[in-house]
Amino acid sequence: MNESLFDVDSHKFLEHNTGVNHYQIVGRDATGSKGSASTEDYSQWSEQPLSLGNYKVIPFGSSNDLPKQIQDTVFPNHLAPGVQDRKVELLMGQGPYLYVEVQDGKNYTRQASKDSQPSSYLYKNNYEDLLECRATDFYYSNIMYAKITRANGIRMGINTQLPLPLIEHVSSGDCRLAYSVTDKRKSPTHVIVGNWNKGGNNLDDFEIYPIWDKENPTKHAHSIHVSIRKSYGVPFYSIPNIFGALKWISRSTATPRILEAFTDNSLSVKWHIESPAQYWNDIETQLKKKHGAAYSDKLLQKEQDRIFQELTDVLSGMNNAGKWWHNQYVTKLIGSQAKEQGWRITAIDQKIGDYVKSYLEIGQHADFQTLAALGLHSALANVGVDGKSDSGSEQFYAYKIHKLTSIPLAERKVCQVFNDVLKVNFPKTEYKVGFLHVDVEREQDVTSSRRIANQNPTA
Protein backbone atom coordinates (compact mmCIF):
# COMPACT_ATOMS: atom_id res chain seq x y z
CA MET A 1 0.00 0.00 0.00
CA ASN A 2 1.28 3.48 -0.89
CA GLU A 3 0.59 6.66 1.02
CA SER A 4 1.62 10.23 0.24
CA LEU A 5 3.31 13.09 2.02
CA PHE A 6 2.76 16.66 0.78
CA ASP A 7 5.91 18.66 0.11
CA VAL A 8 5.29 22.35 0.89
CA ASP A 9 7.94 23.73 -1.45
CA SER A 10 7.23 21.60 -4.54
CA HIS A 11 3.47 21.37 -3.89
CA LYS A 12 3.67 17.65 -4.75
CA PHE A 13 3.01 14.40 -2.93
CA LEU A 14 5.96 12.22 -1.98
CA GLU A 15 5.32 8.49 -2.07
CA HIS A 16 5.62 6.43 1.09
CA ASN A 17 5.64 2.63 0.95
CA THR A 18 3.83 1.31 4.00
CA GLY A 19 4.83 -2.23 3.11
CA VAL A 20 8.22 -1.65 4.71
CA ASN A 21 7.00 1.13 6.99
CA HIS A 22 9.73 3.48 5.80
CA TYR A 23 9.77 7.21 5.10
CA GLN A 24 12.42 9.10 3.18
CA ILE A 25 12.62 12.84 3.76
CA VAL A 26 14.56 14.69 1.11
CA GLY A 27 15.84 18.17 1.96
CA ARG A 28 17.85 20.83 0.17
CA ASP A 29 21.39 21.88 0.75
CA ALA A 30 21.80 25.55 1.57
CA THR A 31 24.11 25.84 -1.42
CA GLY A 32 21.55 24.35 -3.82
CA SER A 33 19.94 26.26 -6.62
CA LYS A 34 16.88 26.88 -4.49
CA GLY A 35 18.63 27.62 -1.23
CA SER A 36 17.47 30.22 1.19
CA ALA A 37 17.42 33.74 -0.20
CA SER A 38 18.84 34.99 3.09
CA THR A 39 22.25 33.52 2.15
CA GLU A 40 22.48 35.50 -1.08
CA ASP A 41 25.24 38.10 -1.35
CA TYR A 42 23.53 40.90 -3.25
CA SER A 43 26.66 43.01 -3.61
CA GLN A 44 28.46 40.24 -5.51
CA TRP A 45 26.24 40.13 -8.58
CA SER A 46 28.59 42.47 -10.47
CA GLU A 47 31.57 40.29 -9.50
CA GLN A 48 30.19 37.30 -11.41
CA PRO A 49 29.46 38.71 -14.90
CA LEU A 50 28.30 36.58 -17.80
CA SER A 51 30.16 36.56 -21.12
CA LEU A 52 28.22 37.49 -24.25
CA GLY A 53 30.32 38.28 -27.31
CA ASN A 54 32.51 41.28 -26.54
CA TYR A 55 30.47 42.20 -23.48
CA LYS A 56 30.30 41.28 -19.83
CA VAL A 57 26.71 41.07 -18.60
CA ILE A 58 25.95 41.94 -14.98
CA PRO A 59 23.43 39.32 -13.82
CA PHE A 60 20.15 40.46 -12.30
CA GLY A 61 20.11 38.06 -9.36
CA SER A 62 22.63 35.42 -8.39
CA SER A 63 21.42 33.20 -11.26
CA ASN A 64 20.39 36.08 -13.54
CA ASP A 65 16.76 35.06 -13.10
CA LEU A 66 15.36 37.43 -10.49
CA PRO A 67 12.48 38.66 -12.72
CA LYS A 68 11.40 35.07 -13.42
CA GLN A 69 11.73 34.18 -9.75
CA ILE A 70 9.39 37.06 -8.90
CA GLN A 71 6.92 36.05 -11.64
CA ASP A 72 6.83 32.40 -10.58
CA THR A 73 6.22 33.35 -6.95
CA VAL A 74 3.81 36.27 -7.30
CA PHE A 75 1.48 35.31 -10.15
CA PRO A 76 0.06 32.09 -8.58
CA ASN A 77 -0.77 33.98 -5.38
CA HIS A 78 -4.33 35.09 -4.65
CA LEU A 79 -3.27 38.36 -3.02
CA ALA A 80 0.04 39.78 -4.28
CA PRO A 81 -0.81 40.50 -7.96
CA GLY A 82 -3.91 42.46 -6.94
CA VAL A 83 -1.93 44.46 -4.38
CA GLN A 84 0.70 45.31 -6.98
CA ASP A 85 -2.00 46.39 -9.43
CA ARG A 86 -3.63 48.52 -6.75
CA LYS A 87 -0.32 50.32 -6.12
CA VAL A 88 -0.12 51.13 -9.84
CA GLU A 89 -3.72 52.40 -9.77
CA LEU A 90 -3.07 54.58 -6.72
CA LEU A 91 0.08 56.01 -8.32
CA MET A 92 -1.54 56.86 -11.65
CA GLY A 93 -4.66 58.34 -10.04
CA GLN A 94 -6.78 60.03 -12.70
CA GLY A 95 -4.01 59.61 -15.26
CA PRO A 96 -0.91 61.49 -16.47
CA TYR A 97 -0.97 65.10 -17.56
CA LEU A 98 1.34 67.90 -18.68
CA TYR A 99 1.96 70.68 -16.19
CA VAL A 100 4.21 73.57 -15.19
CA GLU A 101 5.28 74.22 -11.61
CA VAL A 102 4.29 77.67 -10.35
CA GLN A 103 5.74 79.19 -7.19
CA ASP A 104 3.18 80.70 -4.85
CA GLY A 105 5.09 82.24 -2.00
CA LYS A 106 6.81 79.37 -0.23
CA ASN A 107 4.67 76.76 -1.94
CA TYR A 108 4.76 75.21 -5.38
CA THR A 109 1.59 74.36 -7.25
CA ARG A 110 1.01 72.59 -10.52
CA GLN A 111 -0.65 74.38 -13.38
CA ALA A 112 -1.96 72.07 -16.11
CA SER A 113 -0.76 72.94 -19.61
CA LYS A 114 -2.61 72.48 -22.89
CA ASP A 115 0.29 73.52 -25.12
CA SER A 116 -0.44 71.68 -28.35
CA GLN A 117 3.12 70.84 -29.37
CA PRO A 118 4.32 68.95 -26.26
CA SER A 119 0.85 67.45 -25.78
CA SER A 120 0.90 66.15 -29.34
CA TYR A 121 4.37 64.73 -28.74
CA LEU A 122 3.19 62.84 -25.65
CA TYR A 123 0.15 61.38 -27.39
CA LYS A 124 2.21 60.25 -30.39
CA ASN A 125 4.38 58.32 -27.95
CA ASN A 126 1.32 56.70 -26.36
CA TYR A 127 2.51 58.07 -23.04
CA GLU A 128 -0.42 56.85 -20.94
CA ASP A 129 0.17 53.17 -21.72
CA LEU A 130 3.92 53.60 -21.54
CA LEU A 131 3.71 55.13 -18.06
CA GLU A 132 1.44 52.31 -16.90
CA CYS A 133 4.05 49.78 -18.05
CA ARG A 134 6.78 51.73 -16.27
CA ALA A 135 4.74 51.90 -13.06
CA THR A 136 4.29 48.13 -13.15
CA ASP A 137 8.02 47.59 -13.67
CA PHE A 138 8.78 50.02 -10.85
CA TYR A 139 6.74 48.11 -8.27
CA TYR A 140 8.02 44.72 -9.40
CA SER A 141 11.69 45.48 -10.02
CA ASN A 142 12.55 49.07 -8.92
CA ILE A 143 14.17 49.59 -12.32
CA MET A 144 12.73 50.85 -15.63
CA TYR A 145 14.04 50.99 -19.17
CA ALA A 146 12.94 52.98 -22.23
CA LYS A 147 14.36 53.03 -25.75
CA ILE A 148 14.98 56.55 -27.06
CA THR A 149 15.35 57.20 -30.80
CA ARG A 150 17.17 60.25 -32.17
CA ALA A 151 15.87 62.15 -35.21
CA ASN A 152 17.75 61.53 -38.46
CA GLY A 153 20.30 64.20 -39.37
CA ILE A 154 20.11 65.94 -36.00
CA ARG A 155 23.86 65.58 -35.42
CA MET A 156 24.57 67.43 -38.67
CA GLY A 157 22.07 70.18 -37.97
CA ILE A 158 19.95 69.45 -41.00
CA ASN A 159 16.84 68.23 -39.20
CA THR A 160 14.21 70.63 -37.92
CA GLN A 161 12.18 67.97 -36.13
CA LEU A 162 12.25 67.32 -32.41
CA PRO A 163 15.68 65.92 -31.45
CA LEU A 164 14.22 62.85 -29.71
CA PRO A 165 10.93 62.02 -31.42
CA LEU A 166 10.33 58.47 -30.15
CA ILE A 167 10.20 56.77 -26.74
CA GLU A 168 9.42 53.06 -26.42
CA HIS A 169 8.96 50.93 -23.32
CA VAL A 170 11.31 47.99 -22.79
CA SER A 171 10.43 45.45 -20.10
CA SER A 172 12.82 45.32 -17.18
CA GLY A 173 12.68 41.52 -17.32
CA ASP A 174 14.30 41.59 -20.77
CA CYS A 175 17.12 44.02 -19.92
CA ARG A 176 20.55 43.47 -18.39
CA LEU A 177 23.30 45.99 -17.76
CA ALA A 178 26.61 45.30 -19.48
CA TYR A 179 30.05 46.70 -20.28
CA SER A 180 32.81 45.97 -22.78
CA VAL A 181 35.26 43.18 -21.94
CA THR A 182 38.06 45.76 -22.26
CA ASP A 183 36.46 48.19 -19.78
CA LYS A 184 38.64 48.12 -16.67
CA ARG A 185 36.11 50.19 -14.70
CA LYS A 186 33.51 47.42 -15.04
CA SER A 187 30.76 50.02 -14.94
CA PRO A 188 27.71 49.46 -17.15
CA THR A 189 27.76 51.36 -20.44
CA HIS A 190 25.23 49.30 -22.39
CA VAL A 191 21.91 47.52 -21.99
CA ILE A 192 21.43 44.13 -23.63
CA VAL A 193 17.83 43.25 -24.45
CA GLY A 194 16.46 39.76 -25.08
CA ASN A 195 14.81 36.68 -23.61
CA TRP A 196 17.12 35.74 -20.76
CA ASN A 197 14.93 32.85 -19.66
CA LYS A 198 16.04 30.87 -22.72
CA GLY A 199 19.68 31.04 -21.65
CA GLY A 200 22.41 30.61 -24.22
CA ASN A 201 25.20 32.93 -25.25
CA ASN A 202 24.36 33.59 -28.89
CA LEU A 203 24.77 37.32 -29.45
CA ASP A 204 22.37 37.21 -32.42
CA ASP A 205 19.48 36.52 -30.02
CA PHE A 206 19.95 39.88 -28.29
CA GLU A 207 19.91 43.60 -29.08
CA ILE A 208 22.61 45.88 -27.67
CA TYR A 209 22.12 49.57 -26.96
CA PRO A 210 24.27 52.21 -25.24
CA ILE A 211 22.89 53.76 -22.08
CA TRP A 212 21.31 57.15 -22.76
CA ASP A 213 23.64 60.00 -21.81
CA LYS A 214 21.85 62.86 -20.10
CA GLU A 215 24.79 65.19 -20.74
CA ASN A 216 24.89 64.33 -24.45
CA PRO A 217 21.31 63.24 -25.19
CA THR A 218 21.61 63.06 -28.99
CA LYS A 219 24.90 61.16 -29.05
CA HIS A 220 23.40 57.84 -30.17
CA ALA A 221 20.78 57.03 -32.80
CA HIS A 222 19.21 54.54 -30.39
CA SER A 223 19.88 54.31 -26.68
CA ILE A 224 18.27 53.01 -23.49
CA HIS A 225 17.16 55.35 -20.73
CA VAL A 226 17.61 53.72 -17.30
CA SER A 227 15.73 54.79 -14.15
CA ILE A 228 16.61 53.07 -10.89
CA ARG A 229 15.52 53.42 -7.31
CA LYS A 230 18.80 52.52 -5.65
CA SER A 231 19.22 49.95 -2.91
CA TYR A 232 21.76 50.39 -0.15
CA GLY A 233 25.11 48.77 -0.92
CA VAL A 234 23.98 47.17 -4.18
CA PRO A 235 25.91 48.39 -7.24
CA PHE A 236 24.13 49.15 -10.50
CA TYR A 237 20.88 47.25 -9.94
CA SER A 238 18.25 47.60 -7.24
CA ILE A 239 16.76 44.97 -4.94
CA PRO A 240 13.00 45.07 -5.58
CA ASN A 241 10.94 45.78 -2.49
CA ILE A 242 8.85 42.73 -3.29
CA PHE A 243 11.92 40.48 -3.01
CA GLY A 244 11.74 40.35 0.77
CA ALA A 245 8.12 39.24 0.60
CA LEU A 246 8.71 36.23 -1.66
CA LYS A 247 8.96 33.69 1.17
CA TRP A 248 5.73 34.90 2.76
CA ILE A 249 4.03 34.98 -0.63
CA SER A 250 5.09 31.36 -1.17
CA ARG A 251 3.58 30.35 2.17
CA SER A 252 0.42 32.29 1.39
CA THR A 253 0.16 30.43 -1.93
CA ALA A 254 0.97 27.04 -0.40
CA THR A 255 -1.85 27.06 2.16
CA PRO A 256 -4.83 26.68 -0.22
CA ARG A 257 -2.84 24.18 -2.29
CA ILE A 258 -2.11 22.06 0.77
CA LEU A 259 -5.76 22.10 1.83
CA GLU A 260 -6.90 21.30 -1.70
CA ALA A 261 -4.47 18.41 -1.93
CA PHE A 262 -5.56 17.18 1.49
CA THR A 263 -9.24 17.12 0.58
CA ASP A 264 -8.63 15.62 -2.87
CA ASN A 265 -6.06 13.04 -1.90
CA SER A 266 -6.64 12.31 1.77
CA LEU A 267 -5.78 8.69 2.58
CA SER A 268 -7.36 8.75 6.01
CA VAL A 269 -9.70 5.81 6.61
CA LYS A 270 -13.19 7.30 7.11
CA TRP A 271 -15.30 4.18 7.72
CA HIS A 272 -14.83 0.91 9.55
CA ILE A 273 -17.03 -1.73 7.90
CA GLU A 274 -17.65 -5.05 9.66
CA SER A 275 -19.34 -7.84 7.74
CA PRO A 276 -20.43 -11.21 9.15
CA ALA A 277 -18.53 -14.25 7.90
CA GLN A 278 -21.82 -16.16 7.65
CA TYR A 279 -23.01 -13.64 5.03
CA TRP A 280 -20.12 -14.48 2.72
CA ASN A 281 -20.54 -18.20 3.41
CA ASP A 282 -24.16 -17.93 2.28
CA ILE A 283 -23.11 -16.00 -0.85
CA GLU A 284 -20.54 -18.66 -1.64
CA THR A 285 -23.15 -21.43 -1.22
CA GLN A 286 -25.54 -19.63 -3.57
CA LEU A 287 -22.83 -19.15 -6.21
CA LYS A 288 -21.78 -22.81 -6.04
CA LYS A 289 -25.38 -23.89 -6.44
CA LYS A 290 -25.88 -21.55 -9.40
CA HIS A 291 -22.66 -22.28 -11.32
CA GLY A 292 -21.99 -25.85 -10.26
CA ALA A 293 -18.70 -27.19 -11.58
CA ALA A 294 -17.93 -23.81 -13.22
CA TYR A 295 -17.63 -22.13 -9.82
CA SER A 296 -14.31 -20.58 -8.82
CA ASP A 297 -13.12 -18.23 -6.09
CA LYS A 298 -13.03 -15.45 -8.70
CA LEU A 299 -16.83 -15.45 -8.76
CA LEU A 300 -16.96 -14.84 -5.02
CA GLN A 301 -14.33 -12.08 -5.31
CA LYS A 302 -16.31 -10.44 -8.10
CA GLU A 303 -19.46 -10.45 -5.97
CA GLN A 304 -17.55 -8.97 -3.02
CA ASP A 305 -16.18 -6.20 -5.26
CA ARG A 306 -19.69 -5.41 -6.51
CA ILE A 307 -21.15 -5.16 -3.01
CA PHE A 308 -18.29 -3.04 -1.66
CA GLN A 309 -18.51 -0.73 -4.68
CA GLU A 310 -22.18 -0.14 -3.89
CA LEU A 311 -21.20 0.70 -0.33
CA THR A 312 -18.51 3.07 -1.59
CA ASP A 313 -21.03 4.85 -3.81
CA VAL A 314 -23.34 5.33 -0.83
CA LEU A 315 -20.71 6.47 1.66
CA SER A 316 -18.65 8.81 -0.56
CA GLY A 317 -19.11 11.80 -2.84
CA MET A 318 -19.86 15.46 -2.12
CA ASN A 319 -23.09 15.22 -4.14
CA ASN A 320 -24.35 12.15 -2.30
CA ALA A 321 -26.17 13.94 0.49
CA GLY A 322 -28.79 12.31 2.72
CA LYS A 323 -26.92 9.02 3.10
CA TRP A 324 -28.65 6.31 5.11
CA TRP A 325 -28.03 2.68 5.92
CA HIS A 326 -30.43 -0.09 6.91
CA ASN A 327 -29.32 -3.39 8.37
CA GLN A 328 -30.93 -6.36 10.10
CA TYR A 329 -29.19 -8.27 12.87
CA VAL A 330 -29.67 -12.01 13.36
CA THR A 331 -29.02 -13.62 16.73
CA LYS A 332 -27.56 -17.09 16.56
CA LEU A 333 -26.55 -19.46 19.31
CA ILE A 334 -22.90 -20.33 18.89
CA GLY A 335 -21.86 -22.80 21.50
CA SER A 336 -23.38 -21.60 24.74
CA GLN A 337 -23.42 -17.90 23.74
CA ALA A 338 -25.87 -15.87 21.68
CA LYS A 339 -24.09 -13.84 18.97
CA GLU A 340 -25.49 -11.04 16.82
CA GLN A 341 -24.63 -11.28 13.16
CA GLY A 342 -25.01 -8.27 10.86
CA TRP A 343 -23.22 -5.45 9.09
CA ARG A 344 -21.74 -2.62 11.11
CA ILE A 345 -20.53 0.66 9.56
CA THR A 346 -18.76 2.92 12.03
CA ALA A 347 -17.54 6.44 11.20
CA ILE A 348 -13.93 7.02 12.24
CA ASP A 349 -13.11 10.40 13.76
CA GLN A 350 -10.29 11.68 11.56
CA LYS A 351 -9.51 14.60 13.91
CA ILE A 352 -8.56 16.92 11.06
CA GLY A 353 -9.97 20.06 12.68
CA ASP A 354 -6.70 21.08 14.34
CA TYR A 355 -4.74 20.31 11.16
CA VAL A 356 -6.98 22.48 8.98
CA LYS A 357 -7.20 25.24 11.59
CA SER A 358 -3.42 25.45 11.93
CA TYR A 359 -2.94 25.84 8.18
CA LEU A 360 -5.68 28.45 7.97
CA GLU A 361 -3.91 30.42 10.71
CA ILE A 362 -0.60 30.10 8.87
CA GLY A 363 -2.27 31.29 5.67
CA GLN A 364 -3.89 34.25 7.41
CA HIS A 365 -0.58 35.28 8.98
CA ALA A 366 1.20 34.85 5.63
CA ASP A 367 -1.41 37.10 3.99
CA PHE A 368 -0.85 39.76 6.65
CA GLN A 369 2.94 39.59 6.26
CA THR A 370 2.58 39.73 2.47
CA LEU A 371 0.56 42.94 2.71
CA ALA A 372 3.06 44.45 5.13
CA ALA A 373 6.04 43.51 2.95
CA LEU A 374 4.40 44.88 -0.20
CA GLY A 375 4.06 48.25 1.51
CA LEU A 376 0.33 48.85 1.10
CA HIS A 377 -2.12 49.40 3.93
CA SER A 378 -4.73 46.65 4.09
CA ALA A 379 -7.48 49.29 3.90
CA LEU A 380 -6.21 50.35 0.47
CA ALA A 381 -5.89 46.76 -0.71
CA ASN A 382 -9.54 46.14 0.21
CA VAL A 383 -8.42 43.30 2.46
CA GLY A 384 -8.68 43.61 6.22
CA VAL A 385 -6.31 41.71 8.49
CA ASP A 386 -9.16 39.38 9.47
CA GLY A 387 -10.60 39.25 5.95
CA LYS A 388 -13.15 41.98 6.64
CA SER A 389 -13.26 45.36 4.93
CA ASP A 390 -11.91 48.32 6.86
CA SER A 391 -14.03 51.31 7.77
CA GLY A 392 -14.33 54.31 5.49
CA SER A 393 -12.48 56.46 8.00
CA GLU A 394 -9.52 54.09 8.06
CA GLN A 395 -9.46 53.94 4.26
CA PHE A 396 -9.61 57.74 4.06
CA TYR A 397 -6.60 58.34 6.32
CA ALA A 398 -4.66 55.42 4.84
CA TYR A 399 -5.06 57.00 1.40
CA LYS A 400 -4.04 60.45 2.64
CA ILE A 401 -0.85 59.06 4.18
CA HIS A 402 -0.10 56.92 1.12
CA LYS A 403 -0.52 59.92 -1.16
CA LEU A 404 1.82 62.05 0.94
CA THR A 405 4.56 59.47 1.51
CA SER A 406 4.48 56.83 -1.22
CA ILE A 407 3.42 58.70 -4.36
CA PRO A 408 6.01 61.53 -4.84
CA LEU A 409 9.16 59.41 -5.24
CA ALA A 410 7.43 56.78 -7.35
CA GLU A 411 5.99 59.50 -9.59
CA ARG A 412 9.40 61.10 -10.16
CA LYS A 413 11.01 57.79 -11.08
CA VAL A 414 8.21 56.56 -13.34
CA CYS A 415 7.88 59.89 -15.20
CA GLN A 416 11.63 60.54 -15.34
CA VAL A 417 12.16 59.48 -18.95
CA PHE A 418 9.50 61.87 -20.28
CA ASN A 419 10.69 64.74 -18.10
CA ASP A 420 14.29 64.23 -19.23
CA VAL A 421 13.29 64.12 -22.91
CA LEU A 422 10.96 67.15 -22.60
CA LYS A 423 13.98 69.22 -21.51
CA VAL A 424 15.78 68.20 -24.70
CA ASN A 425 12.86 68.64 -27.09
CA PHE A 426 11.52 71.85 -25.50
CA PRO A 427 14.58 73.46 -23.86
CA LYS A 428 13.01 76.89 -23.38
CA THR A 429 10.10 75.56 -21.35
CA GLU A 430 9.66 73.90 -17.96
CA TYR A 431 7.10 71.29 -18.89
CA LYS A 432 6.82 68.17 -16.76
CA VAL A 433 4.68 65.05 -16.75
CA GLY A 434 3.01 63.87 -13.57
CA PHE A 435 -0.09 62.09 -12.33
CA LEU A 436 -3.31 63.88 -11.47
CA HIS A 437 -4.70 63.05 -8.03
CA VAL A 438 -8.03 64.35 -6.80
CA ASP A 439 -8.25 65.13 -3.09
CA VAL A 440 -10.64 62.75 -1.36
CA GLU A 441 -13.10 64.39 1.02
CA ARG A 442 -14.89 62.85 3.96
CA GLU A 443 -18.63 62.40 3.46
CA GLN A 444 -19.43 64.72 6.38
CA ASP A 445 -17.36 67.47 4.74
CA VAL A 446 -19.39 67.61 1.53
CA THR A 447 -22.92 68.78 0.87
CA SER A 448 -25.71 66.23 0.89
CA SER A 449 -26.22 66.40 -2.88
CA ARG A 450 -22.55 65.54 -3.51
CA ARG A 451 -22.38 62.52 -1.23
CA ILE A 452 -21.86 59.13 -2.83
CA ALA A 453 -25.11 57.73 -1.45
CA ASN A 454 -27.07 60.45 -3.27
CA GLN A 455 -25.40 60.10 -6.66
CA ASN A 456 -27.49 58.70 -9.51
CA PRO A 457 -25.58 56.31 -11.80
CA THR A 458 -25.35 57.50 -15.38
CA ALA A 459 -26.46 55.30 -18.24
Give your account of this protein's structure:
The protein is of the alpha+beta class. The protein has two domains: 44-255 and 360-454, no CATH class; 271-307 and 331-347, no CATH class. Helix content is 34%, strand content 19%. The strands form six sheets. Strands 3-4-9-10-11 form a five-stranded antiparallel beta sheet, with no helix packed on it. Strands 6-5-17 form a three-stranded antiparallel beta sheet. Helix 2 packs across helix 4 (127-141), helix 4 (127-141) crosses helix 10 and helix 5 packs antiparallel against helix 8.
Concise summary:
The chain is α+β, with helices and mostly antiparallel strands and 459 residues long. 34% of the residues lie in helices and 19% in strands.
